[in-house]
Amino acid sequence: MILNNICEVFNKQLVGARDMKIITCLEYIREYLTKRIINVKKIIAKSDGPLSPAATIMFDSIKNEVSQYNVLMTSSSNYQVTDSRNKTVVDVQMRTCSCRKWDLIGMHCKHVVAAIWNMSEMV
Fold first, then answer.
1. Reported pTM
2. Measuring CA to CA, which residue among 49, 58, 36 is closest to residue 107?
3. DSSP bridge partners of 88
4. Strands (DSSP E) along the chain, which ranges?
5. d(CA 122, CA 114)
């Protein structure tokens, strides 16, 4: 879903350049990407930590939710994360979660955050 949204936004920006000659179209794309990169760098410069403000807000909400999960270490790299409804298996070494959110998006899901949090408490 996130990847499609990025493609749709990029495609919408190219609508104005589609009727131009190829060199002009490429220049339009270069200018658009340069402006976008500068805007992202400004947002990153405003952030306090290594994450963007939106990612920080998201991980803070995940941490609050994860504090109520039960985590059981089933092997050296596998964890069973249990919430009020579901049991989910997280393999930290293979970087997979049975909810598949980590595989699809590439960002840690709430189950992975719970497993990593449990790992840090055990050390």
1. 0.60
2. 58
3. 81
4. 70-73, 78-82, 87-91, 96-97
5. 12
